[in-house]
Amino acid sequence: MPEDCKVETALEILVGKWKPIILYQLFSQGTMRFSELQKALPDITKKMLTSQLRELEYHDIVHREIYLQIPPKVEYSITEYGMRMAPLLQAMNEWGMSHIEHLNELYGAEMQAKR
Amino acid sequence: MPEDCKVETALEILVGKWKPIILYQLFSQGTMRFSELQKALPDITKKMLTSQLRELEYHDIVHREIYLQIPPKVEYSITEYGMRMAPLLQAMNEWGMSHIEHLNELYGAEMQAKR
DNA sequence: CCGGATCCCAACCGATACTG
DNA sequence: CAGTATCGGTTGGGATCCGG
């Protein structure tokens, strides 16, 4: 039965213009401050960075640590549970890379995996 | 470097309100006619079914076989290349199922993995 | 420094009607 | 049967400004 397909559940968590790249940063850099994420992702607005992080936090993928001080300091990191996503992200990344090659073979290399 | 993250490439192909369930149908049923897909997905409109299938076809995941006859007959199936997505979809499905359980533990079972 | 609130636009999606 | 055309609603995301 179609209801048994939970691919969409996995997608929910990853879908969002900035989520994959945010996760990539946190996975590779470890703990990062809000401003460090901003620096790493120059084109994202504060609003988007906040909302994307909040959704990841809701799903227990990202942990938000608030330091009560002036000026404020907030650090983000991958949760222990979030670490369990690593193999999946790795698999998606590898599949994505090979798919880009495949598209180049199909349609030629003059395009860069645009759809 | 962030540009090496191709998770988004994999997402591009799966994102779309009906793509996962369409793939689920084709993977489990094999070849299906347009009308059979419509029957299996009662809430999808022809327009959406067509457009989602076209995008999957562009990415060489789905094959479209047209029979020139009256009335028309068109069959859709997973391409040989598309078959290589099976392990990834399987992994995403399993991760999704376990994540639903995890959310239930976190927030209680009164909600069904809604965000 | 780390956001929230508001407004706005573009892309996505649905309903309906029409066609080879 | 298997689509296309058109229109209109909804939602995700960006720009800007305000606040603790």
UniProtKB/TrEMBL annotation, chains A, B:
Name of one Pfam family that matches: HxlR
Organism: Paenibacillus algorifonticola
Alphabetical UniProt keywords: DNA-binding, Transcription, Transcription regulation
Domain of life: Bacteria
InterPro entries: HTH_HxlR, WH-like_DNA-bd_sf, WH_DNA-bd_sf
Domain HTH hxlR-type, residue spans: 5-104
One Gene Ontology MF term: DNA binding
The protein's name in its UniProt record: Transcriptional regulator, HxlR family
